[in-house]
Structures are given as C-alpha cells and as structure tokens.
C-alpha cells in the first residue's frame, strides 16, 4: 500500500529581483530564460513539484547553484516562495501566520545543516535539550529526553563536554540529537555530512541509516554527492538550474534516466550499487536448505560478500518480512560484473 503524502509541493517558484510576482503573472507562470535576463531576475527555483511520503528518505540532489537548498528553505518557509502551493499534512503552509509557523517548526520539523551551529557555551546535554528549553519544557523533562537522544546517536558519557572538545563527526551527532529531541514529523538535513572527512562521512551515513531504521522519520535530505544520494535515498529528485530534472528511485534513475543531464550523472554508476535484491531475485522458493534471509530492499553490492560466502542461496523478504523469492551467488555475481540486470 502506498504511504500517505506528508508534504506536497506544486509549481513552486523562487525568483530574486524587482516585482517578481507581477513578472510571473505577466509571463503566465512560464517565463523564458531571455525574459528573466531582460528583467534582471534570477530564478533560484523554477516550477518545482514534489510529493514526499510518510517515512521515506527523499533526497534532493544537485550541484552547487542548482536550487536544492533554496527549494528546501521554501518547503519550510524559511524562504518565501514567489509562487506555488505547499501543503504539510494537508494544511496550506503558505497561508499560515508567523506564530503558526513558529509552532510548526518547533513541534513538527527538525533541521540539521552543514555547519553544526552548536552553541559553544553550552554542554552537549544543554545543546541537545535547547529546542525543548525554548519551548518552555521543564529542566528535568527536557534533560531526560536529551539524554535519550544522546544515547541514540552514540554519545553517552559526553553529556558534559563542550563543542570544542568534540570531533567534527561528534559535533554533527549532537546536531542530530538536537534536531530530534522534539520528535519532529518531518526532518530536513541540508548537506549535513559534506564538511566531514570521507571516512567520518561514511560512518555518519551508516549512523543516519541506523537511526532511520529505528525512528522511521519522514526525511528531506540535500546533497551534491550522487554516491551519497543513491546510498541513502528511497527516492531522489535531481535538480539543475532551479528545475527538477527527474524524480525516481535510485534504481530507476540509473536504469532509466529521463534527460541527458541525468544520464550523464548516472553513466558511470555500477548497477549493483542501486539494483535491489527484489529486482534480480528468482520468485521461486523451492524446498531446500537456505543460508538465511535478506531484505529485498538491500542492494546487490551491499550483500554480495554475504551471498558469495554462503554455500546455499538466501531467501529474499518483502516489506512485512514475508518471503518473496530467493537469490544465489551466481545471480548476484552476474549483476556485479554486468552480465544481467539490464
């Protein structure tokens, strides 16, 4: 069953320059590049539409200047869109008052940015508890909740440390704990790992996936790194020049790119990195000995060592843990070397 839409964005524009709303109306909501240039108007987001479903990791990916961060700021109304419609849990986000928006961001939305923005004079515990402090939650309750989040992100024992005493990865973990302490329905992450060293970045991606498996949040994640996008995403929106070029699963993007730009991005991505076991398995489940069970949502590349080392095939399971097929080493190796899975 398809999950419900929690955030629905339709025809969103963000223009910078003189009289932008009048300009859009004059051009029937579809100005040309020449018209924009002649009016001295910069288009940061152009006619963007996305539907983000409950519990999914939705990645917005693009190079610097593609509009991805501006779009996310429009989705949370940190930036006012020039035109378009945004609905959060069915409510018109653009019709909300400033007080309603403040309440929404405090109670329903969590945000993590590239720069950790921890308060240097506060301890790890105090930083993590800060959103609840702002809400007026009593000290005992907010610190108890903050300790839970600190434990979840793996920083137990460092509650009394200050940011300067932590590594970059640890500081970002504090930022993650802080963003989750109010139990948001929607979690925005704007290039949260891009300032970290490659090894720490990979570690934080693993940590992010572990947290999501526990918490099942609805996540909007921004990155310029396609490898990071395909590793984390349920679906990806690829942006270029303020426009969304294609929205699809990582598998669909690599196998069926809809524009030359997306095709160029995905040209050198090994298929095994994105192909899920459910796509290459055999639907037959004969009686016999099996090495174990693997989720059909895992990729061939992620499981190849486990499959290849086993002397028997694996059962493949679906969303509810039900057995939906089988996979053996020969099939997985064929995908790895490109002999199948076209």
Automatic annotation (TrEMBL):
<keyword id="KW-0472">Membrane</keyword>
<keyword id="KW-0997">Cell inner membrane</keyword>
<dbReference type="GO" id="GO:0016887">
    <property type="term" value="F:ATP hydrolysis activity"/>
</dbReference>
<dbReference type="InterPro" id="IPR017871">
    <property type="entry name" value="ABC_transporter-like_CS"/>
</dbReference>
<dbReference type="InterPro" id="IPR003439">
    <property type="entry name" value="ABC_transporter-like_ATP-bd"/>
</dbReference>
<dbReference type="GO" id="GO:0015418">
    <property type="term" value="F:ABC-type quaternary ammonium compound transporting activity"/>
</dbReference>
<dbReference type="InterPro" id="IPR027417">
    <property type="entry name" value="P-loop_NTPase"/>
</dbReference>
<comment type="subunit">
    <text>The complex is probably composed of two ATP-binding proteins (TmoW), two transmembrane proteins (TmoV) and a solute-binding protein (TmoX).</text>
</comment>
<dbReference type="GO" id="GO:0005886">
    <property type="term" value="C:plasma membrane"/>
</dbReference>
<feature type="domain" description="ABC transporter">
    <location>
        <begin position="24"/>
        <end position="266"/>
    </location>
</feature>
<keyword id="KW-1003">Cell membrane</keyword>
<dbReference type="Pfam" id="PF00005">
    <property type="entry name" value="ABC_tran"/>
</dbReference>
<dbReference type="InterPro" id="IPR051921">
    <property type="entry name" value="ABC_osmolyte_uptake_ATP-bind"/>
</dbReference>
<comment type="subunit">
    <text>The complex is probably composed of two ATP-binding proteins, two transmembrane proteins and a solute-binding protein.</text>
</comment>
<keyword id="KW-0813">Transport</keyword>
<dbReference type="InterPro" id="IPR005892">
    <property type="entry name" value="Gly-betaine_transp_ATP-bd"/>
</dbReference>
<comment type="similarity">
    <text>Belongs to the ABC transporter superfamily.</text>
</comment>
<dbReference type="InterPro" id="IPR003593">
    <property type="entry name" value="AAA+_ATPase"/>
</dbReference>
<dbReference type="GO" id="GO:0006865">
    <property type="term" value="P:amino acid transport"/>
</dbReference>
<dbReference type="GO" id="GO:0031460">
    <property type="term" value="P:glycine betaine transport"/>
</dbReference>
<dbReference type="GO" id="GO:0005524">
    <property type="term" value="F:ATP binding"/>
</dbReference>
<keyword id="KW-0547">Nucleotide-binding</keyword>
<protein>
    <recommendedName>
        <fullName>Quaternary amine transport ATP-binding protein</fullName>
        <ecNumber>7.6.2.9</ecNumber>
    </recommendedName>
</protein>
<dbReference type="GO" id="GO:0006970">
    <property type="term" value="P:response to osmotic stress"/>
</dbReference>
<keyword id="KW-0067">ATP-binding</keyword>
